[in-house]
Design brief:
By secondary structure, the chain is mainly α. It is built from 18 helices and 5 strands. The chain has one domain: Rossmann fold (3-Layer(aba) Sandwich). Strands 2-3-1-4-5 form a 5-stranded parallel sheet, with helices on both faces. Helix 5 packs across helix 17.
Length: 409
C-alpha cells in the first residue's frame, strides 16, 4: 500500500508515540499500528471507526485506572480490539480490490431483534435452517475474507471445520457454557461482532463497567455502523445466494437508521416475559464481568441492565407510534418454543416469503438436532442482583400494557 493511510491523521503521531511508551495495559492507538503491522494493510475504508474507538478506549482505560479491570480482562479487551481493527482493515482492503461489490444490493434483509434474551437467537437459527436464506455465520464473521465461493462451502470451508473442532473441544472442557448461548461456528451469529469493526455496538459496553461508553452508545448516530454493516454483507454475498437474515437484540434501538440504510428491510420483534428476560440478561452479562473484571458488580448490573432491557422495548414502541405497526412483525417466544415449525411458518406468511418443503425440512431438522436445554438449563434469579418483579414493574408497565406476553413463573 502506498500513500498516507486513511487510518492515521497527523495529530495522531504524537498520540501513538505517547501511547507506545505508556503502560502496555492501556488501550490506545498503538493497537492500530499493531493491527496494521500484523495485516500488512495500512489504511481503512474511512475514519468512521475513530469516534467509537476513542470513547471505548477512554472508558476502558478509566476502568483500569479505577481498578475495575482484571489483568486477564485487560488482555482480553486488547485482543478483542486488535481483532476488530484487523477485521476492518481486511474488509477495507478487499473492497478496494473488489469495488464493484459496493454496487450490489442487499435486498429485503430480515432483521431479528427485541429485548435481549427473548428468543432472538432461536428465531434466527430457525430462519437460517432454510437453504434459501443466508445468515452471517460465526466463523465467517471472525474470518470474512476471502468470502466462500459457493453456499456449499459455508459449512465445509477449512476455516469452518477448524472452528467446529475448536468449539467441540471447548464444550467438552466446559459443557456448562452451552446453557448460556445456543451457538456454533456454522450457526448465525450476531451483527454486534462485525459492527464492532466500527466500534459502535452495545456488545462493547458489556466489557466491564463502562459508564462513558454506555452513555455514548445509547445517544450516538449509528449511521456509519449500519453503512459498514451493509459493506460487510456485500463482501460475504459475493459468491453466495439467499435472502439475508441478520440478528441482534439491539437492532431495536436504531430502527430509523436501519430503514435509512436498508429501506426494504423487514423486521421481526421477539416477545417474552420481560422479568425472565432481565434476569437472564443480568446472568449473561455477569459472565462478561467475570471475564473482564474478575468479579461480578451486581450493583452495576441492577442499575444498568433492567434499564437497557426496558429501553429496547420503549424504542420499538416509539418507532411504531411514529411509523405504524405494520413495519414490524411480532413473534412470541412461547409460540416458538411450543411449536417451532408452525411458528416459523407463520413468520414466513407475515414476511410474504414462500414456505417450501425444503424450508420445513430444514427447520424440522434443526429442531430435532437442538432440543431445548440440550446443554443443560440456564438457571438465574432476579434476587441474585438485588432485583424483584415488583421493583421492575414500573419499567415494563408500558410494554406489558400494550402486549399480551406469556408470563413465566
Amino acid at each position: 500500500m502506498k500513500g498516507r493511510p486513511i487510518g492515521r491523521r497527523e495529530e495522531d503521531d504524537h498520540t501513538m508515540a505517547t501511547t507506545a511508551t505508556t503502560t502496555e495495559h492501556h488501550l490506545g492507538y498503538a493497537l492500530v499500528e499493531q493491527a496494521m503491522k500484523e495485516t500488512g494493510i495500512d489504511s481503512f475504508d474511512n475514519d468512521s471507526w475513530r469516534e467509537g474507538f476513542d470513547v471505548f478506549t477512554q472508558s476502558f482505560n478509566e476502568g483500569i485506572a479505577k481498578g475495575w479491570m482484571s489483568e486477564g480482562g485487560i488482555a482480553r479487551a486488547r485482543n478483542d480490539t486488535l481483532h476488530y481493527l484487523r477485521g476492518r482493515l481486511k474488509v477495507s482492503q478487499y473492497l478496494r480490490e473488489n469495488p464493484e461489490l459496493l454496487q450490489c444490493p442487499v435486498e429485503r434483509p430480515v432483521f431479528v431483534m427485541g429485548v435481549p434474551r427473548t428468543g432472538t437467537t432461536l428465531m434466527s437459527n430457525l430462519l437460517a435452517a432454510d437453504p434459501a436464506r443466508r445468515s452471517p455465520l460465526t466463523w465467517e464473521i471472525d474470518d470474512p475474507v476471502p468470502p466462500v465461493t459457493s453456499n456449499a462451502l459455508l459449512t465445509t470451508d477449512p476455516r469452518a471445520t477448524t472452528r467446529l473442532a475448536q468449539e467441540k473441544a471447548a464444550l467438552e472442557a466446559n459443557p456448562a457454557m452451552g446453557k448460556y448461548y445456543r451457538g456454533s461456528a456454522v450457526y448465525p451469529n450476531e451483527c454486534v461482532f462485525f459492527m464492532a469493526h466500527d466500534f459502535k455496538t452495545l456488545m462493547i459496553e458489556s466489557k466491564g463497567k463502562l459508564p462513558l461508553y454506555k452513555d455514548f452508545i445509547f445517544s450516538c448516530d449509528m449511521t456509519s455502523a449500519y453503512e459498514y454493516h451493509k459493506k460487510f454483507l456485500q463482501v460475504l454475498q459475493q459468491h453466495t445466494t439467499g435472502v439475508w437474515n441478520v440478528k441482534k437484540p439491539s437492532h431495536s434501538l436504531w430502527l430509523e437508521t436501519i430503514f435509512k440504510v436498508y429501506p426494504d428491510a423487514r423486521v421481526i420483534w421477539t416477545h417474552r416475559d420481560p422479568f425472565t428476560a432481565t434476569g437472564s440478561l443480568c446472568s449473561v452479562i455477569s459472565l462478561s464481568h467475570q471475564a473482564h473484571m474478575g468479579r461480578i458488580d451486581a450493583e452495576w448490573l441492577a442499575e444498568d441492565y433492567p434499564w437497557q432491557a426496558a429501553e429496547h422495548a420503549n424504542r420499538i414502541m416509539d418507532f411504531r407510534d411514529k411509523y405504524g405497526e405494520d413495519k414490524i412483525i411480532d413473534v412470541h417466544y412461547a409460540d416458538i418454543v411450543e411449536d417451532p415449525v408452525a411458528a416459523t411458518k407463520k413468520v414466513y406468511a407475515a414476511l410474504g416469503d414462500e414456505w417450501t418443503a425444503e424450508a420445513e425440512a430444514g427447520v424440522q431438522k434443526w429442531v430435532d438436532d437442538n432440543p431445548q436445554d440440550k446443554f443443560g438449563r440456564h438457571e438465574y434469579k432476579l434476587a441474585q442482583y438485588g432485583l424483584s418483579k415488583e421493583a421492575l414493574e414500573p419499567l415494563f408497565e408500558r410494554y406489558l400494557s400494550r402486549y399480551d406476553v406469556a408470563r413465566e413463573g
